[in-house]
Amino acid sequence: MDEQDAKKKIDLLKSKIKKLNYDYFVLDKSTVSESVRDSLKRELVELEAEYPNLITPDSPTQRVGSALSGKFKRIKHLTAKKSLADVFSGEEIEEWYGRIKKLTPETIEFICELKLDGLNITVHYEKGLFVRAVTRGNGVEGEDVTHAVKTVEAIPLKLEKEIDLEISGEIFLPKKAFEKINKEQEKTSGKLYANVRNLAAGAIRQLDPKVAASRGLDVDFYEIGKNNIAPSPKSQEEVLKTFKSLGLPTEPHYEHFEKIEDVVKFCEKWETKRNDLPYEIDGIVIKVNFLTQQQQMGKTAKTPRYAVAYKFPAEQVTSQVEDITLQVGRTGAITPVAIMKPVLVAGSVVSRATLHNEDEIAKKDVRIGDTVILQKAGDVIPEVVESLKDMRTGKEKKFKFPANCPVCDEKIERKEQEAAYRCTNIDCPGKRQESFSHFVSKKAFDIDGLGEKVIQQLLAEGLLKDFADIFMLKRSDLLPLELFKEKRVENTLESTEKAKTIPIEKLLFGLGVRLMGETGSYDLAKYFLLHQTKSSQKIERYKKEKDEQTLFEVPEDSPTEEEFSVLDLMETAQAIPLEDLENIDGIGGKAATYVYEWFQDPANKKLLEKLYKVGVVLTTENISTSGKLSGQSFLITGTLNEMTRDQTKDLIKKNGGKVVSTVTKDLDFLIVGESPGSKFKKAKELEIKTITETEFKKMV
Question: What is the rounded distance in angstroms from the CA atom of residue 631 to the CA atom of residue 657?
Fold first, then answer.
């Protein structure tokens, strides 16, 4: 075959593959098997390898490129991307309609589209060629993820017309692809992915495009930005039809309505039918159909007035309780867990649900073998709502709490006025395992490479006696272990070294004092800094002397004097009377007692001394006793685009604000990201002030 014949053959193959992709992804019509499509692609790859000068940017073979190095580039959107206001009921839909009909004398018509649960993306075409893809980001600018989005086969690399076009859509993972990936994870004993949205978003935000290419991602487009289409679409319905004519996939179940009552019925219909779809949806987007009316209605500082997102209530499904097991926590609390037949609920595969305690099991009368109703809303832990007693066969078994710990077989006890049973053995392996897992967790020391199985092995080998031993691990300790290869050893030791420098509030959280969560640890750190007792004069002695009560030498690179050291923390905590701890805002009586007892314990004093000696250094920049947000409380709901939740929390704390975990009437601000959960609804009911991520950043 000469070059001229090769060009003809390549053009034919490209045209045929493009047509098959259009049939499959846009028309949802499969005219040939997947193996035929793959065979045509292979033939094209071979021809292009032989004639590389004939490769064009729109060739299907050019979807997967080389991995990027470094961070993603930030790109400014041509059209600002606004989040939609949420509505949660038919009444709220009608209230929205009541507001917008005052903005125009004309009759309003509506387009209702299914709201896909995935990653929002904006794609750019120039003269009909795919050139760029950008995440939503903060609405003004996002991250350039062209390399990954290009691998999504449903996105045409060349349009039917040579136009310039900016469009937005949702990249998502079909249910079958999600199940297939999790089955593969199961085979390799990998961790199962929690939900389709995180898996899709994670694939797109990988530097290596091969990850996205391997996931089986799909896309539907729904919003038009800057373009030179002529004649231009006059309505949202025309926008969707235009997309289809250009070869761009759209969600096929949208409908056009003239009455708001029919809009409500459409939402209610899909609330019950959503599980019949081959992909996850988390609501309905309701838009005013005519674009001129959309422009008339305009936008608020946060959201467009012409559209809202109807959010489905917490999804409930049924499953069967196959067993009830007991889980031992780091404080010895024993929690019953229902082992379920795996089921997809609210976008996540659920196979375990907490039963909280003995009283909760009795109250709901949950038995092994029962068919139960499960509920999961947003990021809330799955829970058993009720047991369907009329479906019992007589073979179900009541669960009885044992007298002994399921891990160490020592006695368990339940104190008066407490809901939980606790293991009384201070050396219970279950407690130790959970304590170490908590210490290295992301919210504490954030040490990579020390997962549950690794900690189990380190404990079994006698390499970990206390938390400080983590920082004494050596290459020669780890390399002989079954779970460690050369690269993993290197990464783990690097992560361990990096973790030695830690914010004071994260260290306090990592110590695992009973009832001390993130917020309480921050409040305690703030109090300690205000009432500190300096131990700086003792530092040189600690650096030079060998501690006769321990079996290790002080490292030569022990930390020099810090602003507030682990030794300062120890002495400050020990000097504060219990009654003063009880008066700390956000700590409370029981928690104060646990804090007091922990720091008075000689064994814990030795632990803190050892942590200092192995090089743990405290930082205090997150703690502010004054600042722009001083005295104000904040809570976050939904997905933030410009910063992570942890970064936002740190910014609040640095400016003197307080991060809380629940919505109460005392909350000052709720920061609302994309797809907010039930906290947003509760905040509206309590008339709590809600702000966007952008508005929050202006406050600091």
Answer: 6
- Count of CA atoms in the C-beta half-sphere (13 A) of 320: 9
Q: Kindly tell me the burial class for residue 658, based on how many C-beta atoms sit within 10 Å of its own C-beta (0-12, 13-18, 19 or more).
A: buried
Task: Please tell me the predicted confidence (pLDDT) of residue 294.
Answer: 95
Which residues, at least 6 apart from 684, have a Cβ–Cβ distance to it below 8 Å?
690
What is the β-pairing status of strands 255-257 and 110-116?
A: antiparallel
- Sorted by sequence, the CB contacts under 8 Å of residue 183 that are 6+ apart come out as none
The residues, any chain, with a CB within 8 Å of residue 52's CB and separated by 6 or more, are none
pLDDT (0 to 100) of residue 558: 43
Which residue in 256, 225, 224 sits closest to 243, CA to CA?
Answer: 224
Rounded distance, CA 195 to CA 175, Å? 10
Buried-state track 171-200, b at ≥16 Cβ within 10 A, e below 16: bbbbbebbeebbeeeeeeeeeebebbbebb
CA distance 267 to 259: 13
Question: In this predicted structure, what is the pLDDT of residue 69?
Answer: 46
Counting as low any pLDDT under 70, the low residues of the chain are: 24-38, 62-71, 188-191, 194, 301, 314-315, 346-347, 377-380, 533-562, 625-626
Dihedral over Cα of 278, 280, 286, 291: its sign: negative
Kindly provide the residue ranges of all beta strands, DSSP E only, lying in 228-279, ordered along the sequence: 255-257
241 is catalytic: no
- Residue 314: predicted pLDDT: 66
3-state secondary structure 549-575: CCCCCCCCCCCCCCCCCHHHHHHHHHH
Contact 123, 51 (CB under 8 A): no
Domains recognised in the chain with CATH numbers: 3-62 (1.10.287.610), 74-83+112-258+276-290+301-309 (3.30.470.30), 315-413 (2.40.50.140), 429-499 (1.10.150.20), 504-619 (1.10.150.20), 633-699 (3.40.50.10190)
Neighbours of 449 (CB within 10 A): 18
> How many CB atoms sit inside 10 A of residue 637's CB?
23
CA distance 123 to 136: 10
Quick one: tokens of 119? 């990653």
- pLDDT at position 248, please? 95
For residues 616 and 545, give the distance between their C-alpha atoms in angstroms, rounded to a whole number.
Answer: 17
With residue 354 as reference, give the H or E element that holds it. strand 348-354
Q: Which pTM value belongs to this model?
A: 0.52
- Strand 119-126, strand 165-172: pairing: antiparallel
Per the CB < 8 A criterion, the answer to whether 432 and 336 are in contact is no
With b for 16 or more beta-carbon neighbours within 10 A and e for fewer, the 109-128 pattern comes to bbbbbbbbbbbbbbbbbeeb
Residue 346 has a pLDDT of 66
Q: Which residue of the set 81, 115, 679, 681 is catalytic?
A: 115
Element (H, E) at 319: strand 315-328
Quote the CA–CA distance of 247 and 158 in Å, as a whole number. Answer: 9
pLDDT in tens, 71-112: 678 888 888 888 888 888 899 999 999 999 999 999 999 999
State the pLDDT at residue 675. 73
The span from the CA of 499 to the CA of 445, in Å, is 6
Amino acid 540: pLDDT: 43
Q: What is the pLDDT of residue 472?
A: 95
What is the biggest distance separating any 2 CA atoms in the chain, rounded to whole angstroms? 91
The pLDDT assigned to 562 comes to: 53
Element (H, E) at 124: strand 119-126
